[in-house]
Recover the amino acids of this structure.
């Protein structure tokens, strides 16, 4: 199993580290445009191998895509992150050009690969990769919902005073401050609806805190987060590499599912060796449907800013 991560920055390096620590891939290539940067990150990570007990071989490359040839999975984390006060959508001007160039370079060398898009604004970048590469929809997957759901579970556990392992919940919709749709109605503590334990007001606070999870961290860190993003990507890579068929909310091209067309947005999917094995259509309440519709309008408006 060969995995390429483009962008050796905060998220790319975290993602490569978690993939290596989980020890399911034989090879991870990290590629960056900055001279020597990916090689340095790869060497530093390889020097953790004997300490962290993994055999994954991590190699760095400065923009040499021949090193990425025949990758099974490619992750795109190249591009700029936001600064405090910015939205993810404001990154489109710089990141669209980078993501377009990177995705076409990747498939030149790995025509059968599965691409996971991380760069922001992620739903629009995922849509752009569709337009730029023409790959089948099961092989282009946007990462957002896995991270947003992890943050939702963190906030739920905090509100419930429960261990995170006792909590389950999912966030669908666009990966944006306004567009996320945390499914509070379906969240549970060990199979019991969370509404049995906390008030509607507290649950609303959990929902709001979840939606601004990325912005909150950006305010604290001065740039956006990387540990949870890296862990979220690595979990998706593992599900594909190990053909687990686990459900993750992922950004995927919708062609009528959830009543939506011609955009990529977060919905539950089954991940396996073919990438997206299938989209899971769950019955949403009237208000969840309305939030999803509103979220889709936001994503489509950002898509319109692309020059395709
Ligand atoms: N979808 C999600 O849930 C998340 C998305 N992000 C996004 O991921 C992206 C990366 O974030 P960070 O790693 O924090 O940024 P960073 O600045 O630490 O790393 C980005 C790396 O991309 C490299 N790069 C730029 N242009 C390139 C090109 N043409 N080819 C190869 N490499 C190139 C840079 O040299 C840099 O090393 C941002 O757009 C950020 O908004 C971050 C966290 C979560
Ligand atoms: O907040 C950001 O800009 C980065 C990101 O997508 C996240 O951490 O959710």
């Amino acid at each position: 199993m060969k995995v390429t991560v483009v962008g050796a920055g905060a998220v790319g390096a975290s993602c490569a580290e978690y993939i290596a620590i989980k020890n399911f891939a034989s090879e991870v290539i990290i590629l960056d445009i900055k001279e020597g940067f990916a090689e340095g990150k790869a060497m530093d990570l390889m020097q953790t191998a004997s300490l962290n007990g993994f055999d994954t071989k991590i190699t760095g490359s400065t923009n040499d895509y021949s090193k990425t040839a025949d990758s099974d999975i490619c992750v795109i984390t190249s591009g700029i992150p936001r600064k405090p006060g910015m939205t993810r959508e404001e990154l489109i001007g710089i990141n669209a050009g980078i993501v377009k160039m990177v995705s076409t370079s990747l498939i030149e060398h790995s025509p059968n690969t599965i691409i996971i898009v991380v760069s922001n604004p992620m739903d629009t970048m995922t849509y752009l990769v569709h337009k730029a590469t023409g790959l089948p929809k099961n092989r282009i997957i946007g990462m957002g919902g896995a991270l947003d759901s992890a943050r939702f579970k963190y906030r739920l556990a905090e509100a419930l005073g429960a261990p995170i392992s006792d909590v389950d919940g999912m966030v669908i919709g666009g990966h944006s401050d306004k567009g996320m749709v945390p499914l509070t109605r379906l969240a549970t503590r060990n199979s019991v609806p969370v509404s049995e334990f906390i008030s509607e007001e507290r649950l609303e606070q959990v929902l709001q805190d979840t939606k601004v999870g990325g912005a909150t961290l950006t305010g604290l860190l001065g740039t956006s987060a990387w540990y949870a993003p890296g862990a979220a990507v690595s979990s998706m890579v593992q599900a594909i590499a190990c053909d687990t068929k686990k459900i993750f909310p992922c950004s995927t091209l919708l062609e009528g599912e959830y009543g939506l067309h011609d955009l990529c947005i977060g919905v539950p999917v089954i991940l396996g060796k073919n990438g997206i094995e299938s989209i899971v259509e769950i019955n949403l309440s009237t208000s969840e449907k309305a939030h999803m519709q509103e979220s889709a309008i936001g994503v489509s408006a950002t898509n319109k800013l692309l020059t395709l």
Observations:
- Residues 92-109 form the longest helix (18 residues).
- The radius of gyration is 18 Å.
